[in-house]
Design goal:
The protein has helices spanning 6-20, 22-47, and strands at residues 66-67, 73-74. By secondary structure, it is mainly α. The mean pLDDT is 76.
Length: 82
């Protein structure tokens, strides 16, 4: 009688049924099936985006530099940073 023989598994199954009872084994298997179903749904939900992406706000163009009287250019600093 080897590890993979049919009689070995029948005896193991009978011992499990005696220890846990038929109702408890079916309850465990039902919970196991629900867990697998929930796991598969979780994997499928990962493919779908949770929320639509936020709209992109275009950057404001920079103000052109202002010329001073002596030939130098100065950037406009009148705008406050966000």
């Amino acid at each position: 009688m080897g590890f993979g023989s049919l009689w070995h598994w029948i005896i193991v199954l009978l011992v499990v049924l005696v220890l846990f009872g038929r109702g408890r084994v079916s309850e465990i298997m039902g919970d196991f099936g629900k867990g697998i179903k929930s796991f598969k749904q979780g994997l499928n939900d990962d493919d779908k985006p949770v929320a639509p992406p936020a709209p992109q706000i275009p950057a404001q163009p920079a103000a052109p530099p202002q010329a001073t009287g002596n030939g130098e250019t100065v950037a406009d600093t009148s705008q406050t940073p966000r």
